[in-house]
Amino acid sequence: MRVSNQSARARGAAAALLAVMLTACAASVPSSAPPPTVAPTPVITPNPHLTDPATADAIFSAIRSAGLPLSTSNAFAGAPNAPVVKRINAAVDNWPLIITQYQNMATLRAAVKWDPSKPPAAGSPPYAFVGLNIMVAFGPPSGKPVPPDASRQAQALRLVGALDPLLWPIQQRSVTPIPTATPPAASPAPSAVKPKASVKP
Q1: Mean pLDDT of 66-93
Q2: 100: closest CA among 46, 71, 137?
Q3: What is the DSSP letter of 80?
Q4: Is the alpha carbon torsion for 161, 163, 168, 169 positive or negative?
Q5: Looking at the DSSP assignment, which residues form a beta bridge with residue 96?
């Protein structure tokens, strides 16, 4: 039986149309492969540590940001060339807080004869913290400083938490020592190797 050329051409066209449709359907099917994972952009944590000389204003702002019940009484600037650059008299929940900015670290230690190995002397506040060129005194001066109650110790702990990242390493002269969050730098261990004795000719 003879098949007309017209029928053959029609079947060929239908087959071609079917192939095109199948190709289009295959292209429209979404790929099951997951999209490539994009690595997150690293977050750079700023270093909050201040440098010498730090300012009393920066310390006051940090203490306020810590959420302590802080109020300001007054502030004054030191005389030209005086050891003290600025002093801020404030209070935390009606307890005196004095922030003193000295010209630099060496000036502070010379002016107050700072020795953290000694306990608070008579007439001193129960807490005194020193870092860089800043001294922070917390509590009323008394003839013989006595350990404050638990609520004041908790406030002193929060105070150190605000100061520690800025003024590390912090030294203190406190009736009840407050632990610092940042460990102090370890002193280098003495060398185990003994120096050779000199040989006399």
Answers
A1: 92
A2: 137
A3: T
A4: negative
A5: 91
Parallel, antiparallel, or unpaired for β 127-131 and 95-102?
unpaired
Separate counts of helices (H) and strands (E) for the chain:
4, 6
The continuous run of DSSP H or E covering 18 comes out as helix 5-28
pTM (predicted TM-score): 0.67
What pLDDT was estimated at residue 60?
94
Matching residue, tokens 């003290």: 84
Ranges of H-type helices in 101-198: 105-112, 150-167
For residue 65, give the 3-state DSSP assignment.
helix
**164 CB burial (10 A radius; 0-12, 13-18, 19+):** buried
The rounded distance, in Å, linking the Cα atoms of 89 and 98 is 5
Q: What is the pLDDT of residue 200?
A: 45
| 29/22 Cα distance (integer angstroms) | 11
- Report residue 109 as tokens: 């230690």
Q: Return the structure tokens found at 25.
A: 């359907």
Cα–Cα dist 143/121, whole Å: 8
Burial of 59 (0-12, 13-18, 19+ CB in 10 A): buried
Residue ranges covered by each domain of the chain = 56-172
Per-residue pLDDT at 91:
96
What percent of the chain has a predicted confidence (pLDDT) above 70? Answer: 66
